[in-house]
Specification:
Elements lengths: L8 H9 L6 E4 L2 E2 L3 H5 L28 E5 L35 E7 L11 H7 L5 H10 L4 H4 L1 H20 L3 E3 L6 H4 L18 E4 L2 E4 L15 H9 L3 E4 L24 E4 L2 E7 L7 H11 L4 E7 L10 E5 L2 E4 L16 E4 L2 H6 L6 E4 L2 E5 L3 H9 L3 E5 L15 E7 L3
Parallel strand pairs: 3-17, 4-5, 7-8, 10-11, 13-14, 16-17
Antiparallel strand pairs: 1-2, 1-3, 4-18, 6-7, 9-10, 12-13, 15-16
Length: 428
């Protein structure tokens, strides 16, 4: 292949699936569907014009790079009819024909759980929260001050609705590609009130963290922030179904909860999915120096749990970093996106000889640009604002899909945080 693709074919199919006949397109930073957009498109051979998609390939190294990014405007996407979409009305949709298992970050995604928002109350002390949790993106500070002590839907109804729509849009995009999608069960009022005296927040957006799938083992994680302890409840129906399908299940002993402003002193073990990245038998586990997530006790627990079949690599992280995946994504074997500044001891040895697409620490933490969703080797979903990263990826023969996610990232998570694979199919 002469260059990477930014593929819009699936977007056209998604639009028809959801009853849409319009499609926003960005060509070199301009939006529209006119001649400028048509310049970079071609009808797919053998398909009617009404169903044709489009793709753009990079030209020679000496020619200008024209980037055409097909954008799904998730805020206009209705709730999709998918497994677990909206409040689950019955048992988890079974996938007996699919095995449970994840071995590498870049294998083809076949089954997944995607997060959902909850209408929580913001902390009443926004300045203290921001100071204690320095990993929070800058965008959260303004929202937190405006919404202090109020429910999200009351303080920011547009942002709340857009966050829900963008998560539903991600679920619909994956469903249209044939990925089996689950959603967490909405927490009950009693569950949401657990540890409310320590933090009023309730989240179910970032399903990456409360469960961890390694090989055919599903682990119920231990989350350090007090309001995140309860997130496990919304995923237990799925974890039980995975066990019925042959998975092995383990539970990290929960750590001791402390108020939000004191989490750095909390006693673990803590082990969070955003800190765990899989490279076959090598498992990287982030250890943030800020004391917001995984700790050494959690890493030691995982090392004992996995045994000699895996090599667990403790990976120290910058004090501002919440999770390892804030600034690292394995796009395919030999190619990664990385914010080098987040790695206290330099790049992990597992990827030391890989090609690296560099991003800055600020853009990794404030816009979560490196927190991408890997669909298959050399194929990713990233934030529609990350135009520069999209260009770099296409130069490395990577197919790029973009979705709006700006209503999700202020809460310190991106695409990887918002999903957890149940099954990735290794290349045959």
């Amino acid at each position: 292949m002469g260059g990477g693709e930014i593929d819009a074919g699936g977007v056209g199919q998604l639009g028809r699936l959801l009853g849409r006949d319009d499609q926003g397109v960005v060509v070199a930073g301009r939006t529209g569907g006119g001649a400028a957009a048509r310049e970079g498109t071609r009808a797919e051979a053998g398909r009617p014009a009404a169903t044709a998609g489009c793709s753009v390939r990079r030209g020679s190294a000496r020619s200008p790079l024209m980037v055409l990014i097909a954008r799904v405007r998730a805020a206009r996407v209705p709730r999709p009819g998918i497994a677990g979409g909206g409040p689950p009305a019955g048992p988890v949709r079974r996938a007996v024909e699919r095995s449970v298992g994840v071995h590498r970050e870049w294998d083809r995604l076949a089954e997944v759980v995607v997060g959902r928002p909850l209408d929580f109350a913001f902390p009443s002390d926004p300045a203290g929260t921001q100071a204690a949790l320095s990993f929070l993106p800058r965008g959260f500070g303004e929202l937190g001050r405006h919404a202090a002590g109020r429910r999200w839907s009351q303080a920011d109804p547009d942002g709340y609705a857009r966050c829900a729509a963008q998560l539903d849009g991600l679920a619909a995009f994956l469903t249209a590609r044939g990925v089996l999608v689950h959603r967490p069960t909405e927490l009950t009022e009693a569950e949401q009130n657990l540890f409310v005296e320590l933090s009023p927040v309730s989240l179910q957006i970032f399903v990456r963290d409360p469960m961890i799938v390694i090989g055919d083992t599903v682990i119920e994680a231990s989350l350090r922030l007090p309001h995140r302890f309860k997130e496990r409840f919304g995923l237990r129906h799925l974890m039980a179904d995975m066990v019925r399908r042959g998975a092995r299940r383990s539970v990290v002993p929960p750590g001791s909860p402390l108020p939000l402003q004191q989490v750095a002193r909390a006693q673990g073990p803590y082990l969070e999915g955003g800190d765990v990245m899989l490279f076959g038998r090598d498992v990287l586990v982030g250890a943030g120096q800020g004391g917001f997530a995984t700790d050494d006790a959690g890493i030691d627990w995982l090392r004992r749990e996995l045994g000699d079949g895996y090599r667990v690599h403790r990976t120290p992280l910058h004090p501002r970093v919440l999770h390892l995946d804030d600034g690292l994504a394995a796009v395919r074997e030999g190619l990664a996106i990385a914010a080098r500044a987040q790695f206290v001891d330099g790049l992990p040895s597992v990827i030391a000889d890989w090609d690296i697409i560099d991003v800055g620490l600020d853009e990794a933490l404030d816009q979560l640009v490196a927190n991408v969703l890997v669909l298959a080797p050399g194929e990713v979903i990233l934030d529609s604002r990350a135009l520069g990263l999209a260009e770099h990826l296409t130069r490395h023969d990577v197919t790029v899909h973009t979705l709006d996610f700006d209503a999700v990232t202020p809460f310190a998570g991106g695409f990887r945080c918002s999903h957890h694979p149940v099954h990735r199919a290794p290349a045959e």
